[in-house]
Amino acid sequence: MVHQRYAIYYAPRLNSKLGQFGNAWFGYNPVSHEAIPRPNVEGMAAQEIEHVTRGAGRYTFHGTLRSPFKLHKNRTLESLGESLKSFVTKARPIICGPLSIRSIGKFLALVPDDPENHIPGLAEQCIRTFDNFRLAPSKQELDRRRQAGLTSVQEELLLRWGYPFVMEEFRFHLTLSDKLDGMDLIKYQALLEKQCEDLCDEPFVIDEIALFGDPGKGGKFEEISRYQLLGDD
User: Fold this and answer.
1) What is the pLDDT of residue 233?
2) Full 3-state SS string of 110-151
3) pLDDT of the chain, 233 residues: tens digit per residue
4) DSSP characters for 83-107?
5) Long-range CB contact pairs, 134-142, < 8 A, 24+
6) 10 Å Cβ neighbour count for 209?
7) Which one, of 174, 173, 193, 199, lies nearest residue 44 by Cα?
8) In the prediction, which pLDDT does 107 show?
9) For residue 109, what are the β-bridge partners?
10) Would the CA dihedral through 112, 180, 223, 21 be positive or negative?
11) Distances in Å between the alpha carbon of 115 and those of 97, 120, 121, 187?
12) Which of 116, 128, 204, 207 sees the fewest Cβ atoms within 10 Å?
């Protein structure tokens, strides 16, 4: 299948505790591309979960390492896959502190405790290594990004790397919701903290990365392939 855009994600394995929760939370299996039942969350109906994840759910449960990009006309999906295979031979697995439910602006996310900034380092490697695979964004795409109100640093990053929230502006997270109003933000954060107690009680590990594709027309992103990080300590 030809995809409109590609992204490099951390995406937990489907059979892991984190993967089972996150994919059910969004009601979607990114490997089979099928809808799956929402989880039982005390204090929330399934329709309520669907409502607060309507926009974020298109991108599936993930942590971004390289944001979605259009493939350069001189590059192919096959060559991108080969480059990923080479990349992971040198990229080291990451073990950091546990996840916690946090508000980032007006949305909720799972965020790991990473005081040594290992994950931003991995993300920067992805940005630099795969930059020659991306098609430069159009003026229309750049203007759409600018509607969020960018700082001068973010504007420079947008022009250089095609996305404003990279390098020093990068903050790794696994998005759980769309933007929420103040009281809803407090309410759902409390419910999710209770729901995710077990998930937030152990180290967070990144030992694989995954290539995802955007099928276009508002469809949900799909997992294409995944790669184990094989670098030595």
Assistant:
1) 65
2) EEECCCCCHHHHHHHHHHHHCHHHECCCCHHHHHHHHCCCCC
3) 789 999 999 999 999 999 999 999 999 999 999 999 999 999 999 999 999 999 999 999 999 999 999 999 999 999 999 999 999 999 999 999 999 999 999 999 999 999 888 999 999 999 999 999 999 999 999 999 999 899 999 999 999 999 999 999 999 999 999 999 989 999 999 999 999 999 999 999 999 999 999 999 999 999 999 999 999 86
4) HHHHHTTTPPPEEEPPEEEEEETTE
5) 134/69, 134/70, 134/71, 134/72, 134/162, 135/69, 135/70, 135/71, 135/72, 135/73, 136/162, 137/70, 137/162
6) 23
7) 193
8) 96
9) 102, 175
10) positive
11) 8, 11, 12, 28
12) 116
**Cα-based distances in Å from 69 to 3, 30, 144, 204:** 10, 18, 14, 27
> For position 208, what pLDDT does the model report?
98
Name 110's bridge partners: 101, 174
Residue position matching structure tokens 């993967």: 19
Bridge partners for 211 per DSSP: 8, 225
Query: In the Cβ-directed half-sphere of 96, how many Cα atoms lie within 13 Å?
Result: 18
Supply φ then ψ for residue 20, to 5 degrees.
-65, -45
**In terms of C-beta density within 10 A (0-12 exposed, 13-18 middle, 19 or more buried), how is residue 105 classed?**
exposed
Q: What is the pTM of this model?
A: 0.96
Taking phi over 0 as left and psi of -120 to 50 as alpha, with beta for the rest, 60 belongs to left
Cβ atoms of residues 53 and 25 within 8 Å: yes
